[in-house]
Amino acid sequence: MDLINKILKNKINYFIILISIILYIRQENRILDFPIFLNYTFFLILFFVLFFINNKHSKEIKRKSFLHQFFNILALIVFAILFTTMLKIPLNFAIIKLTNGNQIERICQINNYFSGRMEKIYFIFDGKKQSIRFKNEKHLTREDIIKNYMIKLNYKNSIFGTKVIESYQLIKNKNTVHNTNFTS
Q1: Is the pTM of this model over 0.85?
Q2: What domains does the chain contain, in order, with CATH numbers?
Q3: Alpha-carbon Rg for the chain in angstroms
């Protein structure tokens, strides 16, 4: 717990954590098929590095209670998740910048729509459920979007087999289009 206490005592770390969370949340949801193995790899590496650093700093491990060790492991898990998201920020920027090839167009069936703090459209892309943020400027109902619209994606391939959405449109069966374009 010594390492955790040192991290938590330094006020600048709170600022760095807050900025990282804001940057991660504010990133546009433009990347499809992000390899999940990278998330697990980052997490496991960071967890074990933090675990060994913490144990090196903590010389009285055997005298600590089970509850103390449990909260220590829990804190290491939280920090490993946090540092994993911090590592994903530059990786996401790299994925977006390293797109290659021509723009590809694909029309996908919308299978769900959630509104609230963050509106999202869910669709099936290459057999996987994907989502993208959506601004419902026309105030369409959930049922209307699911039943009467499809999503037209314009994307490019990138590293790790990911796809970066350049723009998308909701397409109604009668050529009524709601445009939402990203700027890169």
Answers
A1: no
A2: 2-97 (no CATH), 100-181 (2.40.50)
A3: 21
CA distance 36 to 105: 24
Residue reference for tokens 């977006």? 96
Find the length of the chain. Answer: 184
H/E element, 18: helix 11-26
Q: Tell me the CA distances in angstroms from 11 to 22, 55, 83, one per residue in order.
A: 17, 23, 17
| Encoded amino acid at 86, one letter | M
Q: Comparing C-alpha atoms, which of 174, 120, 114 is closest to residue 149?
A: 174
Cβ atoms of residues 182 and 166 within 8 Å: yes
- Token digits of residue 74: 């829990």
Residue at token pair 């669709």: 123
Nearest of 2, 25, 49, 36 to residue 133 by alpha carbon: 25
- The stretch 132-142 carries a mean pLDDT of 86
Model confidence at 182, pLDDT cuts 50, 70, 90, reads: very low
